[in-house]
Specification:
Two copies of one chain form a homodimer.
Chain A lengths: L1 E8 L4 E9 L3 E10 L7 H4 L4 H20 L4 E6 L1 H5 L3 H12 L4 E2 L2 H15 L5 E6 L4 E7 L2 E8 L3 H8 L7 H17 L10 E5 L1 H13 L12 E3 H12 L20 H15 L3 E4 L4 H10 L11 H13 L4 H19 L8 H13 L11 H12 L6 H12 L19 H18 L7 E9 L2 E8 L4 H10 L2 H7 L2 E5 L4
Parallel strand pairs in A: 1-4, 4-5, 6-9, 9-11, 13-14
Antiparallel strand pairs in A: 1-2, 2-3, 6-7, 7-8, 10-11, 12-13
Helix pairs in contact in A: 2-4, 5-11, 6-10, 7-10, 8-10, 9-10, 13-14, 13-17, 14-16, 15-16, 16-17, 17-18, 17-19
Chain lengths: ~500, ~500
C-alpha cells in the first residue's frame, strides 16, 4: 500500500490528507491533520500575509512535513490556493517553507483549482452531462460538463465570505439586502452564455458551504448521515426553507442550526443565497453533493495518472470495486455470486415473477453481491452485519444515500434474518418490503449455490410452470450436491417473495 | 497472510473454520461453513455410522476440501471427535474421506480433546489458577489448571445429550428427576480428589451448552452481546434462575428462551443442571465463558507452535496486540500515545488528582491507546467511532464485557465529543462518568502531544501547585511548538475532570 499526502494550504486552514492506495486497485482516506492557520487574516488591507501568520504557516508546514516522515508517507503533494497565490510576499513564504520544512509548494492557478474541483465532481457524483459549482470563501467556479469532460468554466467573486461582507454586513439580514444579493447573482449567471437560462439540467456542487447546507437539510429531513452528505440531493425547496430559517435569526445564531459548522455561521446565509440564486436562474431543481473536493481532485490525478483526463470509467462501478478490493483479495466468489444472482433476477423478471423490482434494482443487487462478504475483515461472526456497517461508513460515491442503504441491507440479509425495509427509515418508499425481500432471497440462494466457493454451480435457469418455479442448475463441480441441498433449505424466502413453490433441480445430495 | 482451515468432524455437525494469520503477529477467524451431518444419528444402537450418514459425511468432506482449494487455504487440519472415534466403521469412513476428498483425518483421543479445550480456556479467558469445564453432548471434561498449565483432568459421561436422555426423558421435568440428576453429578464431583470440596475458586467453561446458557443469562440481564458471550461471567444465581424458568416449561418450549439455539432446546436443561451441580459441589460462584473452543485450541497449537505448551504470555496483552496489529502496520504512534498517557495517569494519581480511577483502569487506558486509531481502516472520518465498533466486534479475549466497553469508549473519545458513561448501559457502575471523563481527557491530550507522529514530545511530567496543574514537556522534535499549542487548546476536558486549571509548558507556538 502506498501512502500519498496531499497538503492543501488554504486561506483559512492548512490541511494534510493522507490517501492509502494500491495502483490500479483501491484507495482510501486514511489520515488527516488540520490547522486553522488563517494566512489570509488581515490580508485584504495590505495584500501581504502578516508576519505572525507567516510564522504559524511555516511552523505548520514543519509539523506536516515531520508527520509525513514519521507516518510512512511515500509521496507528498503540497499545493497552495488563493491566499498564498495572491500574496505580495508569496516568494518569501514559499522560500521559508522550502528551507524549514523541505516542502516545495505548488501554487495553483485559478484554472488548476477549477480543474481539481471538476475532477472531484466527475469522479464522485452521478453527473455525466450538466453543470458544476465550487464555492469557496472568495469566489465561485461554475463549470459546464459534457459526457464527464470539462467544456466551459468561469470564476466569479461570489464566494461565501465575500458576498457576506459585501451584501450582508449587519447582525440581521434585511429582505432588501437578501433581494439585492440574489439579483446580483442572477445577473451574473444570466450573462454567462453556457449556463442554462432557466431550463435546468443536472447539477453538482462542492465546497464546505455546500456540504454544510446539505448536512443541515439532511438533518432537518431526519435522514441518516453515516457517510456524510455523499450523494445527497439538496432540493431548491429544502434550500429555500433553510434560507428562511437562517434569515430569521441574527448572524450570531446561525451556527447553531444543526449541520452548520461553528466557523461557517457568519457566512452560511450568504453562501446559501448565492447557491439558491444560481439554481433559480439556471432552473436546477437540486444540487447533488459529495464529500470530495479539491484534495481528492489532486489525489485522483495521481491515482489515475495513466488516464487523460484522470477519470474512472464508471463512477459507481469504481466505487463498488474500490470498497470490494479494499477488504478482499480473491474476487472469484463475489463475482460468481453476482453472476448467479443476476441469472435469478433476470429469469424471475422474464417469468413475470418480479414485479416488485425494476432495472435500477439490478445494479443495487450487483453491488451487494460484490460487497456481501467484506464484513469478514472485522469478524466472521455476524459478518453480514459488519458488511452493512462497512458499506454505509466506507461510502459509495455515485450512489444516493437511499441506494447505499439498500445495497447495505441486501448484503445484510445475504445469510439470514427477516429482511425489514423499515430499517431504511425516512428513505423508505412504497413496495420496499417486497423489493428488499426479493433481492435478499436472490442473493441468499446464490450464496448457497456458491457455498463451496468453487463455482460448482456454473449457472442457474429459472423455469416457471403450473404455479411452481424450478431453478435448474448447470452443476459442474464436486461440491454441487451439497450446494443444491443447501439451496433447497434456503429457498423459503424466495417462495414467500414470489408466492410460488420453488424447486431446485440438480444432482441429488 | 496465511490461511489455515480447521475441520472439526463432530457427532452432530461438521464445521470448517478458517483462520487468517501472520506468524508471530496476529490472527482472526475469517470464514466458516457448517453442515449438520449428524454422523451419530442411530449410532447408539449399532455402534456403527449408518450408510446414509457415511454418504453425507463424505459429501461434506468433499465440499470442505473443494472450498479449501478454491478459497486460498494454505493448510488444512481435519480432526474427528467422539462419534468417529467410537464408530466400528471408523476405518471405512476415514478411507472414503481420503479417497474422495483427499483429507487425512486425525482422530482425536479423549486426552487430545481435553488438551485442546484447555488451550482454548488458557488462551482466551482470565483464568490463571482454577478449574475448567468442557461440556459436550456425551461427556464432560473437568480440568485443574495451575499457573495456566493443565495439571489434572478427567472425563465423565455427563454430556448434555446423555444426561437429558438418561435423567429427563419426559416432556416435563419433575422435581424428583431434577434432584436425581443433581445428586448424581454432585456425587461424581465429590469423589474427584482434585476438585474443590465446596470452597470454590476461579472457573471457566467452554462448549455450546455453556455458551447458550451464558447468552440466555446475558439477554435476561439486558447486557450487550456485541462480542457474543466472550468474557461474560455466568453466576450461579443467574444460572439457577434460568434453570427455574427452563424447568417450568415443557421440553418443546425451551428453545424459545432467548439465547438458546433451536437445536439445543431438548438438552439445555440437562446441561444447565450438570453445570449448576458442578458449581454447587465445588463452590464456584460464577463460570467465565468464551467464544473459543476445540477448534481454537487446534489453531493455537499451530499459531504458537514455537511454544510448549502453546500459550500466549499474557492473554489480555495478546488480545490487544492482536487487534492492534490486525489494522495497523506502524505501532510507533500508538505506543507513544500509550507512554504519554501513562505518564499523565501516574502523575495525576501521584498528585492526588485522580481519585476517580484506580489501578485496573490503567490497563484499560493502555489498551485504548493501542487501539484508538484502528478505525482509520474503515475511514478517516469518524474513525474514533469506527475504532469503537472494531474493538467491540473484534473482541478482546481475557477482558470482561464491561472492560471491553470501557476500552472502546475511551478510544471513542480520544479526539472529540463529550464522554458519556450512560453508553455503558447496564454495565455502568458508580463514578463511571468521572472515570471515563478523566481517561478520555488523558488520551486526548496524549494524542495532541503526538499529533505530528514524530515523538516530538518525548515525555510529560505532572506538576501540581496552588490549584494549578502544569504539564511540563520534554520537547525534542521540531513538531513540538505546534503539538504544545494543540495540547493547550485541548486541555479543557482535563480541567473539568480534575477541577483544576491546566497549563502546558514547553517551547512556544
Amino acid at each position: 500500500v502506498r501512502r500519498t499526502a496531499v497538503i492543501d494550504m488554504g486561506s483559512n486552514s492548512f490541511r494534510l490528507v493522507v490517501y492509502g492506495w494500491e495502483p490500479g486497485r483501491c484507495w482510501q482516506h486514511v489520515d488527516e491533520i488540520r490547522e486553522a492557520v488563517r494566512v489570509s487574516a488581515g490580508m485584504s488591507e495590505t495584500g501581504t500575509i502578516k508576519p505572525s501568520r507567516v510564522k504559524r504557516a511555516v511552523q505548520t508546514a514543519v509539523v506536516f512535513s515531520s508527520f509525513c516522515r514519521h507516518a510512512g508517507i511515500d509521496e507528498v503533494i503540497p499545493v497552495a490556493t488563493s491566499a498564498i497565490r495572491d500574496a505580495d510576499n508569496q516568494a518569501e513564504v514559499l522560500e521559508l517553507m522550502r528551507e524549514h520544512a523541505g516542502l516545495d509548494v505548488r501554487v495553483l492557478s485559478t484554472d488548476d483549482e477549477t480543474r481539481y474541483g471538476y475532477l472531484a465532481i466527475a469522479n464522485t457524483t452521478s453527473l455525466v452531462d450538466g453543470w458544476g459549482l465550487d464555492m469557496g470563501g472568495g469566489s465561485v467556479q461554475l463549470m459546464r460538463i459534457e459526457d464527464r469532460v470539462l467544456h466551459e468554466s468561469g470564476s466569479w467573486p461570489l464566494g461565501a465570505v465575500r458576498v457576506s461582507e459585501e451584501f450582508l454586513p449587519d447582525e440581521d439580514a434585511s429582505p432588501k439586502q437578501i433581494k439585492a444579493l440574489r439579483k446580483h447573482v442572477a445577473k451574473i449567471v444570466g450573462e454567462c452564455d453556457w449556463m442554462p437560462a432557466g431550463d435546468g439540467g443536472s447539477f453538482a456542487g462542492i465546497g464546505g458551504t455546500v456540504r454544510n447546507l446539505a448536512a443541515a437539510a439532511q438533518k432537518r429531513a431526519g435522514h441518516p448521515d453515516t457517510n456524510g452528505v455523499q450523494g445527497f440531493k439538496l432540493t431548491r425547496e429544502a434550500l429555500e426553507d433553510l434560507i428562511e430559517e437562517l434569515a430569521s435569526m441574527p448572524v450570531s445564531k446561525r451556527a447553531n442550526v444543526p449541520g452548520i459548522k461553528p466557523d461557517r455561521g457568519d457566512v452560511i446565509l450568504g453562501g446559501a443565497l448565492v447557491l439558491a440564486a444560481v439554481m433559480e436562474s439556471a432552473g436546477f431543481e437540486a444540487v447533488e453533493t459529495t464529500e470530495a473536493g479539491l484534495r481528492e481532485g489532486v489525489f485522483f490525478e495521481r491515482f489515475l495518472d495513466d488516464r487523460d483526463p484522470p477519470l474512472f470509467d464508471d463512477v459507481r462501478e469504481a466505487a463498488v470495486s474500490n470498497l470490494a478490493l479494499r477488504y478482499q483479495d480473491d474476487m472469484a466468489h463475489p463475482h460468481h455470486v453476482e453472476k448467479l444472482s443476476l441469472e435469478l433476477f433476470d429469469g424471475l423478471r422474464a417469468a413475470g415473477l418480479a414485479d416488485s423490482v425494476n432495472g435500477p434494482d439490478r445494479e443495487l443487487l450487483q453491488a451487494a453481491c460484490m460487497l456481501h462478504d467484506i464484513g469478514t475483515a472485522i469478524d466472521y461472526d455476524d459478518h453480514h452485519k459488519h458488511s452493512r456497517y462497512l458499506i454505509l461508513h466506507g461510502g459509495l460515491p455515485g450512489f444516493s444515500p437511499r441506494e447505499m442503504e439498500l445495497i447495505a441491507l441486501i448484503a445484510r440479509y445475504h445469510r439470514k434474518g427477516e429482511p425489514d425495509a423499515s430499517e431504511l427509515g425516512p428513505l423508505a418508499r412504497k413496495k420496499d418490503d417486497a423489493r428488499l425481500t426479493l433481492l435478499s432471497a436472490i442473493i441468499r440462494l446464490a450464496e448457497q449455490f456458491e457455498r463451496s466457493r468453487d463455482q460448482a454451480i456454473a449457472a442457474v435457469h429459472v423455469e416457471a410452470s403450473n404455479g411452481t418455479v424450478t431453478l435448474a442448475t448447470d452443476a459442474v463441480g464436486e461440491g454441487a450436491p451439497v450446494a443444491i441441498w443447501s439451496a433447497r433449505r434456503n429457498a423459503d424466502l424466495l417462495e414467500r417473495a414470489i408466492g410460488r413453490k420453488v424447486e431446485v433441480s440438480g444432482p441429488d445430495g
